[in-house]
């Protein structure tokens, strides 16, 4: 199991910290930038690190590198340590796409409902929409 998930997640599994499979699933992509990285890799395919930085301009180089390392440790992305190597979703990472896409669709619909309901305007600065 040591090579299948990052140490933090492995420790939680061993110690029974997760109350249910849903919590474990969320741990795979919770944390700043991870869900956005998975979404873009699933939508467009492989990206160079610099391209991911442009998609997520508010993410620092350090943050992005750290999150990609965590996603790779969990077996969700393939990230070679070679300069300018493309980052791709693994087959395991691709299995999260229906969840991520459903969350995107739900969030889009709910934000539209909230904007139509009143005088609220939202600024979603974390993700550049490439549609």
Automatic annotation (TrEMBL):
Signal peptide (UniProt feature, chain positions): none
Keywords: DNA-binding, Transcription, Transcription regulation
Superkingdom of the organism of origin: Bacteria
GO MF annotations, alphabetized: DNA binding
Residue ranges of domain HTH hxlR-type in the record: 20-115
Pfam families: HxlR
UniProt xrefs under Gene3D superfamilies: Winged helix-like DNA-binding domain superfamily/Winged helix DNA-binding domain (1.10.10.10)
InterPro entries with a match to the protein in the record: HTH_HxlR (IPR002577), WH-like_DNA-bd_sf (IPR036388), WH_DNA-bd_sf (IPR036390)
Record-given protein name: HxlR family transcriptional regulator
């Amino acid at each position: 199991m040591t090579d299948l998930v990052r140490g933090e997640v492995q420790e939680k599994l061993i110690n029974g910290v997760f109350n249910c499979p849903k919590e474990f699933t969320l741990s795979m992509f919770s944390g700043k930038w991870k869900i956005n990285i998975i979404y873009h890799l699933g939508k467009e395919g492989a990206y160079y690190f610099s391209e991911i930085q442009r998609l997520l301009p508010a993410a620092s180089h350090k943050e992005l590198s750290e999150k990609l390392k965590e996603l790779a440790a969990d077996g969700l992305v393939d990230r070679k340590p070679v300069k300018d190597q493309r980052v791709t979703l693994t087959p395991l990472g691709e299995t999260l796409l229906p969840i991520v896409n459903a969350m995107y669709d739900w969030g889009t619909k709910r934000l539209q409902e909230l904007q139509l309901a009143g005088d609220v305007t939202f600024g979603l600065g974390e993700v550049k929409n490439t549609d």
